[in-house]
Design brief:
Chain B: Keywords: Transferase. The structure holds 2 protein chains of 2 kinds. By secondary structure, chain A is an alpha+beta fold. Chain A contains 4 helices and 4 strands; from the N terminus they run E-H-E-H-H-E-H-E. Chain B has 2 domains: 138 residues, P-loop containing nucleotide triphosphate hydrolases (Rossmann fold, 3-Layer(aba) Sandwich), CATH 3.40.50; 130 residues, Aldehyde Oxidoreductase, domain 3 (Alpha-Beta Complex). Chain B has 7 helices and 14 strands. The radius of gyration of chain B is 21 Å and the shape is globular. Classes of the chains: A alpha+beta, B alpha/beta.
Chain lengths: 93, 277
């Protein structure tokens, strides 16, 4: 699964496009997210809060769409998804 | 407008390549060129009326004939970016010959070092260059937009006859918040390309549905933007000033809210991402 990271997150990893293999047979967003952190544990302190949940200010997108808005959140089936992205609050302009 | 810089030492065929590309791009749109010259221009020669205007102290002089025109002036009156801004109003392509190292898509002829521009091709001589490959590579780059090029575009709208107002917003790099503030030297923008384009298209579509709003254009630069330079433009063509002002404000607010762009600030002493402040 292809992950794209931006700003501080890509600086932490040293790259902004990552290929992360996900073992699950019918992977969900949760599986892909866990696989990303397993492959890049250096992200953990930046991405997870004290309870191990995704920090509030971070956004996730599945092929440009917000899965918590237009799909099943963590349970979103990634069958047809090509690209996942994670980033901090946008700061254009 | 797409802008291409052509660089190389003398006798590497820069002008030959500029001619070949001008000819090729003319099939696709209007082409403007800028040449960096070391010698005095010969057009406005001593004793001509326009030269007398200049000698009397005019900083810029236009000679306009029935078929052609020319302009002359002090170099302090026109830099490359101002020339490109003017070309952007009417041209689809601009070829810039002989500047050494610009932050623009570039063709390098022969052995020559460039740091700032994205190099699209490195032929050994202008005669050898693969024109079609350069055309395709240039079309794939982000166009060079300015406030005037966007204003010119909305004015070409078929609904232009119903429009009594254009409102524009320009966001620029603020060097200081106040007299004691540490100076911001530059900002660096990272963009989630495909998604950013998609979100900007959504905003545009949403705003153009409003009554009395005919055209909306927005452009955001990426990469390094220095203090005092422009970052983002929003341009609205509308029936009346009310909807023009409201839409231009909503346009920039929506852009700042949903378009995946990330800003890093570089001050005299430090570097930080804007969201960490």
């Amino acid at each position: 699964m292809r992950w794209k990271l931006f700003a501080t997150l890509s600086e932490t990893v040293g790259d902004n496009v990552l290929e992360v293999s996900v073992d699950a047979e019918e992977p969900t967003l949760r599986d892909a997210f866990d696989a990303l952190l397993a492959a890049h544990p250096e992200l953990e302190s930046q991405v997870l809060d004290e309870e191990g949940a995704l920090q509030d200010h971070l956004r996730l997108l599945c092929d440009g769409e917000d899965p918590f808005h237009s799909a099943e959140g963590w349970e979103t089936d990634l069958g047809d998804v090509e690209e996942l992205a994670m980033f901090p609050p946008v700061t254009g302009g | 407008m797409h802008v291409l810089s052509i660089v190389g030492h003398s006798d590497t065929g820069k002008t030959t390549l500029t001619e070949r590309l001008t000819d090729r791009f003319s099939d696709r749109g209007r082409v403007g060129t800028v040449k960096h010259i070391d010698c005095e221009p010969t057009l406005d020669t001593e004793g001509k009326d326009t030269a007398r205007h200049r000698a009397a102290g005019a900083v810029q002089t236009y000679g306009i004939g029935d078929d052609e025109w020319f302009a002359t002036g002090d170099t302090s009156e026109l830099d490359l970016h101002e020339a490109l801004e003017r070309l952007g109003e009417r041209c689809d392509y601009a070829l810039v010959e002989g500047y050494s190292d610009l932050a623009l898509p570039t063709v390098v002829l022969g052995e020559y070092d460039v740091d700032r521009g994205e190099v699209l091709a490195r032929p050994s001589h202008g005669e050898e260059a693969d024109i079609e490959a350069i055309v395709d590579a240039l079309e794939a780059t982000e166009p060079y937009e300015t406030l005037s090029s966007l204003v010119a575009k909305v004015k070409r709208s078929p609904d232009e006859v119903y429009s009594g107002a254009i409102a524009t917003f320009t966001g620029r790099v603020r060097a200081k918040e106040g007299p004691d503030d540490e100076r911001t030297e530059k900002l660096e923008f990272e963009k989630y390309d495909e998604v950013a384009e998609q979100k900007m298209a959504e905003i545009r579509e949403e705003l153009e549905k409003r009554d009395g709003v005919y055209e909306v254009r927005m452009h955001h630069k990426t990469g390094v933007v220095e203090a005092g330079e422009d970052i983002v433009f929003v341009v609205v063509l509308a029936g009346h000033r009310g909807e023009a002002f409201e839409t231009v404000e909503d346009g920039i607010n929506r852009l700042k809210e949903i378009v995946p762009l990330f800003k890093k600030e570089v001050t005299v002493d430090e570097e930080f991402w804007a969201h960490e402040q």
